[in-house]
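agent> step 3/5: call structure_predict on target 'CBS domain containing protein' (Streptomyces resistomycificus).
agent> reason: downstream docking stage needs a structural representation; sequence fetched in step 2, passing through unchanged.
tool.input:
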Amino acid sequence: MTLVQMHPRPTSANSVHRTAADAMDTAGPQVWDDMTVEVALSVMTAARTGHLVVCDEDGECTDLVTRARLTAVRDGVGYTDQVRLRDIADGGPFASPLTTVADAERTMRHRRLGVMPVVDEHGNALGVLSLSG
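tool.output (status=ok):
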């Protein structure tokens, strides 16, 4: 797990002082990492969401998957209906509740992420940050 917690660099007064805890949305559906890609896509459709927080058997957040990522895996060469979320996990990045919004946005833009999970010191998903603009 890669927690993102960097030293703030001023970009604007608002984003420098706001933390991930201030800006996060609810985590949304959380699923186990042994779920297959097909079932995860069905859960997304039923929940009307574009992402799922993936947890291991201990309830620790291990990844966040998007519909686009799951669709790409499903449409990829060598895909079978036995591929599980743990098989495609990339493990991060994750934001700490104390990470500034500016730092989280920088990381998300660099990694080309639309959403990033916010986790506590025990790896529990607290919420998600969505990239603005």
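agent> step 4/5: record observation. The beta strands are 3-4, 30-32, 51-55, 61-66, 94-95, 115-119, 125-130.
agent> proceeding.
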